[in-house]
Amino acid sequence: MMPYNPGRHWILLIVRAKRETIYFLDSLPGNCTPKQPSSVECGYYVMRFMRDIIMDPSLAFEKKYAKGNQEAPYPQEAIDEVRNEWCKIPHQPTEKG
């Protein structure tokens, strides 16, 4: 899994080398994933995509995000859960030079 920002918007790339397949999970309208309600949640949606995939022991994300299966936004509680988990991770200070 690789979060990727090609410019002002985060998406998630998933490479399945054995299947020679790359998946693009994008929270903007027109894709088969939960839709972000405005223009600022894309990073949280990418983190939620990763969390959902990792927490599913079957790793059946292809079926979960198949065309038409997921188009409603995540509930606010799902995004808040990711925010809260992220805040609990200890962060290292960066060096400025």
Automatic annotation (TrEMBL):
<comment type="similarity">
    <text>Belongs to the peptidase C48 family.</text>
</comment>
<dbReference type="InterPro" id="IPR038765">
    <property type="entry name" value="Papain-like_cys_pep_sf"/>
</dbReference>
<protein>
    <recommendedName>
        <fullName>Ubiquitin-like protease family profile domain-containing protein</fullName>
    </recommendedName>
</protein>
<dbReference type="InterPro" id="IPR003653">
    <property type="entry name" value="Peptidase_C48_C"/>
</dbReference>
<keyword id="KW-0378">Hydrolase</keyword>
<keyword id="KW-0645">Protease</keyword>
<dbReference type="GO" id="GO:0006508">
    <property type="term" value="P:proteolysis"/>
</dbReference>
<feature type="domain" description="Ubiquitin-like protease family profile">
    <location>
        <begin position="1"/>
        <end position="53"/>
    </location>
</feature>
<dbReference type="GO" id="GO:0008234">
    <property type="term" value="F:cysteine-type peptidase activity"/>
</dbReference>
